[in-house]
Amino acid sequence: MENEFQPIIVGFLCNWCSYRAADLAGTARVHYAPTMRPIRVMCTARVEPEFVLKALREGADGVLIAGCHPGECHYVEGNIKALRRFTLLKAMLRQFGVEEERVQLVWAAASEGKQLAEAVDRMTEQLRALGPLRWRQRVLGEQPVARHALEVEVGG
Amino acid sequence: MAKPTFAMYWAASCGGCEISLLNVGELILDVDAAFDVVFWPCVADFKYQDVEGYPDGFIDLCLFNGAIRNSENEELAHLLRRKSKTLVAFGSCAYEGCAPGLANLTTNAATMRTVYTDSLTTDETRGNLPQPVSQVPEGEISIPVLYETVRSLDQVVPVDYIIPGCPPEARQIAAVLRAVLNGMPLPAPGGTIIGAGNVALCEECPLAKNVKQITRFYRPYEIVPDPGICLLEQGLVCMGPATRSGCGALCPQVGMRCEGCYGPLDGQDQGARMLAAVASVVAAGGSHLDEHAQAREIAAVMDTLVDPAGTFYRFSLAHSLLRRARVADSSA
């Protein structure tokens, strides 16, 4: 399976739950697709729509935002604010021709390492089916510098 | 001593920028007295050939309005950059694509179909598409090539200054012209924004702002807003929070939502910022609901916001993070 398309997922993980879930998945040696580049944020509400658009433009094939279940937010309702933004962002991205599966919001508590791993696996399969995004190269007609840089960074 | 030279050009634009320049009133006489007009298709008969004949850097001040939509626009952008000492992206089209840039949400084929085939007002010429090359008695003539993606001026050539606005406000233009006429130093060039503020429009908008709790959005024709109260609070998608100040908040004061023509603040993506601002003030998905009900209620409110991309990026799409939509047949 050497030539199988390995999507790049930029993951914005909430410090209080999903980042710990990822940590737990690691310590529990859960096997899942090595496609997510995790970025720790203090809350899913910290994820500006700009972060998502920039990730997509700079070479990500998908963006995963993961935070606490509703009612369990460390900042009371940051995750609900994130859900509001995400709902509108999804509607807007549809107009930009970005498939729904490419930007996802999931809830994963600190104890749900396995669930987070499953979410990454599921998204990886969905992105494989959709194929690469390569915004700069395929939509803007530029050279694929950004993606190459990403691959070197992670693969190195 | 020879007078400094002045040029103004329109690429993909509507002509409103020239009108706004004339709106400076009597100051235009001082401009005329101080400058030699060497190229200005809107008011004087100069040919492209004349410009080609000028030495490089011959034009002291060139105001370029309009986006880069076709090969003629691009050619003139390169030509005027070469011939101008100071090149100004004048108005929203040159700065960030403006309304022509909205074509980036679709394809040329679809745009052509709408204009020449599906339009209700097209009658006997229905289906007559412009031909790239035509035979006429005098020989063969061709029209410029329409590009699939609309670009701003600074995506084609380096610009020295940017004067935002659709169109730029006359008093802002006047302030810049006075500075130039009086030989006052301008800020360092390099795509620098002049003739505008650097805070959000809400800062200069006098409407009363209270707590925002939006339960549904309205398009401007659907409601008559209460005077004196923030339009965003009333459910109109007023772009004030994501838009650069400088116009004096003219539209909101007469009950029309800000459409965002002065573009984003420094380093921001206008649409993304507006999306974040709008989503934060939606009052839906309270904690008394379960997860699914929350998601449903939020989705129902967001559904009342028609055309988010066209609303948030009405002026800045070509200059935004994504720049254009991905369409099935566009690999370039």
* Uncertain segments of chain A: 152-156
Silhouette of chain A = globular
Count every beta strand of chain A, where a strand is a DSSP E run of 2 or more residues. Answer: 4
**N→C terminal distance of chain B:** 50 Å
| Alpha-carbon Rg of chain B, integer | 22 Å
CATH class of the largest domain in chain B reads Alpha Beta
Low-confidence stretches of chain B: none
The interface involving the most residues is between: A-B, 32 and 41 residues
The third-level CATH topology of chain A is Rossmann fold
Q: Average pLDDT value of chain A? A: 91
Helix-strand sequence of chain A? EHEHEHEHHH
Number of domains of chain B: 3
> Strand-and-helix sequence of chain B, N→C?
EHHEHEEHEHHHEEEEHEHHHH
| Beta-strand content bin of chain A | 5-15%
Coarse structural class of chain B: alpha/beta
The CATH topology of the largest domain in chain B comes to Rossmann fold
Largest sheet strand order of chain B: 2-1-3-5-9-10
Structural class of chain A: alpha/beta
Could you tell me how far the N terminus lies from the C terminus of chain A, measured between alpha carbons in angstroms? 20 Å
Q: Note the overall shape of chain B.
A: globular
